[in-house]
């Protein structure tokens, strides 16, 4: 027992001596550079090392360099001959942004309540240097092994001809792509654009410059050029995180991978848009480009007066179905014709738009008889044959079986049957009186009369009234915000008047509401909104500094107008959409 007590006391004394020695150890905090002279195509490793654990590490701003990786943290601790050693390191990998001499300033850290600073060091960046393949860094390997390419279906299309752009990322089989994000999505100016969503990223084995690569499609878009000449397609830029193999091996002999990131861009691409030929261009050509079928059909050819039929003008096929006007029917004046209802069934694939569009007319005959629906024509340009085509519809004869007749004979019969005897009533002759019972005016004069003094006092009364009226007008004119609200409300009522009249009739209301919204943008932004998608309209409103809430409200109304064609909408919903449209137009008018 006595020996055990001595051993315990000796152990405590030894531990105290070690702790005292450790506390007396000098605290160090220093910066270490992998090299002091490097080429602009090389990387610089900077380590900030301390022999005591600290907090609140603040790195320098690294002026003249771009941080490629970091900060990464490593800690080592060991006991050698009863002496404990400790080391903590913050590491950065930097890429120079320009040639010249740069100073890496001080970093700071707090250790046991005291702030320590590293010494600044100078680095010289020279011109690019050549290095053997064995000395390539992870960034060098990533630069050579990662490519973003924009594949364009046609580089010399016609105006309004579909062009498909597919963005593919090519990665060498020696590296692994762990993540990517878009830095800058292209804006397709002078194009009507439609994205084709990529729901799944499928990796394909392929080659690039004769070497084995993996490729994946990131983005697909169909463009319809709206302008001739050379048009630029902006590049897509991505930030890609990759793992690159190094020459180092782990404990089990496996290759160690280094994590790095790289910015890749598809590069600027230019296409040359050809104008449509003028030779052989039909007079009724309205801008249709593609391959189409055209027809005019009637739901009935035999009916009675006051009954209705549907006359449908339909265009189907492949081409710019959303970017031209459908020919109008030319019907006899004795037929009552309502505004056509537009129907659209179009889907966008990699080859462009395909489907059908149509106008459906409601026709109500008034009199009995036979009425022709004359043949009409539709012209389009076929880019495959590079010629114009004109299609003509067949004439349709509408036979109205029962109803009132109209014509000269009927009019004469009605005139003869409606003749009536004219019977005189009251006195037939009126005589003028020979003695009119006139009285003398007298010799009264205007000057000095009551009327004279009233006219003389009238200007004195009008002067204060004019002053009050002028002040009132100035007050109204100075109320800028109030005047803006009044003008916006008048504008909303102007464009929404047709929609208000159609409240209660779902189809008519939403057709009128959609036209009101498009006509407002057309008048306000001087654009043809039929050439733009909802995404394009959102982009235009954002460029005009319209707040996001108003943008969402406007696009939401357009979506409701489309949904109303296929879904039932109540009167309450129509009232809400009308009220919302008034508010949105008022807000837009104040913000644009």
TrEMBL record:
<dbReference type="InterPro" id="IPR025738">
    <property type="entry name" value="BatD"/>
</dbReference>
<feature type="transmembrane region" description="Helical">
    <location>
        <begin position="452"/>
        <end position="470"/>
    </location>
</feature>
<keyword id="KW-0472">Membrane</keyword>
<feature type="signal peptide">
    <location>
        <begin position="1"/>
        <end position="21"/>
    </location>
</feature>
<keyword id="KW-1133">Transmembrane helix</keyword>
<keyword id="KW-0812">Transmembrane</keyword>
<keyword id="KW-0732">Signal</keyword>
<dbReference type="Pfam" id="PF13584">
    <property type="entry name" value="BatD"/>
</dbReference>
<protein>
    <submittedName>
        <fullName>Protein BatD</fullName>
    </submittedName>
</protein>
């Amino acid at each position: 027992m006595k020996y055990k007590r001595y051993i315990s006391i000796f152990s405590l004394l030894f531990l105290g001596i070690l702790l005292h020695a450790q506390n007396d150890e000098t605290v160090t905090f220093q910066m270490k550079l992998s090299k002091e002279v490097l080429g602009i195509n090389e990387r610089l490793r900077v380590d900030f090392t301390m022999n005591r654990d600290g907090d609140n590490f603040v790195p320098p701003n690294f002026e003249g360099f771009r941080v490629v990786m970091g900060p990464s943290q490593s800690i080592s601790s060991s006991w050698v001959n009863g002496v404990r050693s400790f080391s903590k390191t913050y590491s950065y990998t930097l890429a120079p942004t320009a040639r010249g001499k740069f100073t890496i300033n001080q970093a700071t850290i707090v250790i046991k309540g005291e702030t320590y600073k590293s010494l600044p060091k100078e680095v010289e960046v020279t011109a690019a240097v050549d290095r053997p393949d064995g000395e390539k860094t992870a960034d060098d390997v990533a630069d050579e092994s990662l490519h973003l390419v924009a594949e364009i279906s046609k580089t010399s299309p016609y105006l309004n001809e579909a062009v498909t752009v597919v963005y593919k990322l090519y990665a060498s089989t020696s590296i692994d792509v762990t993540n990517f994000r878009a830095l800058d999505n292209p804006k397709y100016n002078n194009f009507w654009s439609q994205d084709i969503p990529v729901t799944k990223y499928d990796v394909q084995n392929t080659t690039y410059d004769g070497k084995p690569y993996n490729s994946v499609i990131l983005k697909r878009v169909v463009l319809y050029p709206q302008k001739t000449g050379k048009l630029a397609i902006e590049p897509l830029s991505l930030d890609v995180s990759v793992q690159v193999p190094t020459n180092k091996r782990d404990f089990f002999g496996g290759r160690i991978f280094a994590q790095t990131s790289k910015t890749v861009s598809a590069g600027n691409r230019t296409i040359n848009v050809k104008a449509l030929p003028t030779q052989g261009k039909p007079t009724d050509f309205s801008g249709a480009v593609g391959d189409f079928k055209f027809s005019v059909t009637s739901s009935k050819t035999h009916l009675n007066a006051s009954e209705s039929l549907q006359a449908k003008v339909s265009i189907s096929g492949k081409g710019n179905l959303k970017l031209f006007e459908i020919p109008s029917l030319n019907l006899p004046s004795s037929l009552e014709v309502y505004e056509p209802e537009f129907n659209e069934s179009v889907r966008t694939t990699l080859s462009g738009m395909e489907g059908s569009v149509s106008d459906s007319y409601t026709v109500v005959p008034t009199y009995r008889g036979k009425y022709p629906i004359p043949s009409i024509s539709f012209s389009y340009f076929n880019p495959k044959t590079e010629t114009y085509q004109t299609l003509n519809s067949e004439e349709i004869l509408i036979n109205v079986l029962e109803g009132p007749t109209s014509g000269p004979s009927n009019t004469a019969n009605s005139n003869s049957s409606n003749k009536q005897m004219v019977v005189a009533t009251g006195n037939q002759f009126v005589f003028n009186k020979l003695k009119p019972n006139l009285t003398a005016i007298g010799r009264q004069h205007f000057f000095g009369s009551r009327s004279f003094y009233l006219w003389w006092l009238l200007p004195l009364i009008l002067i204060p009234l004019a002053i009050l009226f002028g002040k009132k007008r100035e007050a109204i004119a100075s109320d800028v915000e109030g005047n803006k609200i009044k003008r916006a409300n008048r504008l909303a009522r102007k464009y929404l008047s047709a929609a208000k009249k159609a409240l209660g009739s779902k189809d008519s209301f939403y057709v009128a509401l959609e036209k009101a919204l498009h006509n407002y943008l057309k008048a306000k932004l001087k654009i043809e909104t039929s050439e733009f998608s909802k995404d394009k309209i959102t982009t235009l409103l954002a460029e005009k500094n319209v707040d996001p809430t108003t943008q969402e409200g406007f696009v939401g109304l357009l979506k409701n107008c489309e949904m109303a064609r296929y879904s039932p909408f109540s009167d309450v919903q129509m009232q809400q959409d009308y009220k919302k449209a008034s508010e949105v137009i008022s807000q837009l008018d104040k913000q644009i």
